[in-house]
């Protein structure tokens, strides 16, 4: 086994809620309000659609793909979803610093070193929004290769928080049979004060449509028993998965990192991201961070009032300042 090379689940394709488009000579993230399932191949127009994209749309009769039937590979939630604060080099695509809010691994002139991780809000290295939460979820789409997976990447707080909570909850209620639960990735939306009533899209993990919790747990127990009879060892798979992730300092390969930076850590992300189109609404996987970044720079009410006071005639201005002090 090559040391320093993370052994990640085999990837058959990608799941995204956005794409990269070229506008005015620049490649920028564009938002979407639906899932897209692609292969790992790219053409002139972007990622090539996977056959499952069309098949699931037909089976579910969804005009817009907003739910995908999935199963987890592992019983351990943290193996299915890995989430860390990550900072990438925009030129090389190489990860520079990866942390969990307590400690981090950082590239330095003396190699990879461990440092305290105070989170991006108070880290000097993370100024300017260069460091973001970065999550990778591997799932098996219903009917695909048992050990093959499709990967969903996100830098959205809402998606990471929601997916993490669901994974831990389903593991608990099923009696550690998370990998056998019939689940569904579902696209949800919400509005916040910062989004100015515009929808923010994030990914949730739910039971299959039409199935109750009791029926889902019964299906998980039945699948688990069939696997045990066939000799399927889920515990050993979880152990092998954990050792594979631990074998490397950083999970993403150099060949993937450049595209990750372009899609999720674009310098124009948030400020120049393409607006919502009437034909396809919201198309950037990092929609949550894009809206937050775009609105955080707007002047507040206090700044606006101070600006108006400064433009008043001197006599009125001095009286106004006196009243403010009182």
From TrEMBL:
The keyword Hydrolase belongs to this UniProt entry's keyword annotation: yes
Alphabetic keyword roster: Hydrolase
GO molecular function term, any single one: hydrolase activity
InterPro entries assigned: Gp3-like
One Pfam family from the record: Gp3-like
Keyword check for Hydrolase: yes
Domain of life: Bacteria
Bias-annotated ranges (Low complexity): 286-297
Region described as Disordered: spans on this chain: 269-305
Record protein name field: Hydrolase or metal-binding protein
Organism: Undibacterium griseum
Lineage: Bacteria, Pseudomonadati, Pseudomonadota, Betaproteobacteria, Burkholderiales
